[in-house]
Design a protein that fits this description.
The chain is of the alpha/beta class and about 140 residues long. It has a single domain, classed as Dna Topoisomerase Vi A Subunit, Chain: A, domain 2, CATH 3.40.1360.10. About 55% of the residues lie in helices and about 10% in strands. The protein has six helices and four strands. A four-stranded parallel β-sheet has the order 2-1-3-4. It is elongated and about 50 Å long. The two termini are about 20 Å apart.
Length: about 140
């Protein structure tokens, strides 16, 4: 079991590092709210983060904000619960109609590794810390 936890922690850390690299290279990341932004910043994600559910934004406001980035692609990293999945699909469909490349690879990777245990992006940091605490030898 300890090996499985180590493997999961390593994979999540690799995904976070890859996400940080993509963000640094200029790919914007869409999250649900301010807490998600704070957690991603704490995890080392320093690029542009766009909140989908703050300040009374409509779906069109979010799409418009994404289009203003003038990048060819965007990473969607909304929550893993039912509502997050719905928002992800709505944004994805709207952006694809506008010929914007939508990346769900990070979202799908987190969902497959931690989806049963983590329902929201803001829970990733605590989940990762819990994994590391379980892995560390206890004296």
């Amino acid at each position: 079991m300890l090996n499985r936890l180590k493997e999961k922690e390593e994979k999540i850390s690799q995904i976070i590092n890859a996400l940080a690299e993509e963000s640094t290279e200029g790919t914007p990341i869409v999250v649900e709210g301010k807490n998600d932004v704070e957690v991603l910043r704490e995890l080392g994600i320093n690029g542009e983060l766009i909140c989908a559910k703050t300040g009374g934004k409509s779906l069109l406001d979010v799409i418009s904000e994404i289009e203003k980035t003038r990048t060819s692609e965007v990473i969607l990293l909304l929550d893993f619960d039912r509502r997050g999945k719905q928002i992800t699909n709505r944004i994805r469909h709207n952006l694809e109609r506008r010929r914007k490349k939508v990346r769900l690879d990070f979202w799908l990777a987190f969902l497959s590794l931690a989806g049963k245990d983590v329902q929201c992006v803001e829970g990733l940091k605590a989940y990762l810390e819990n994994l590391r605490n379980k892995i560390r030898p206890q004296f």
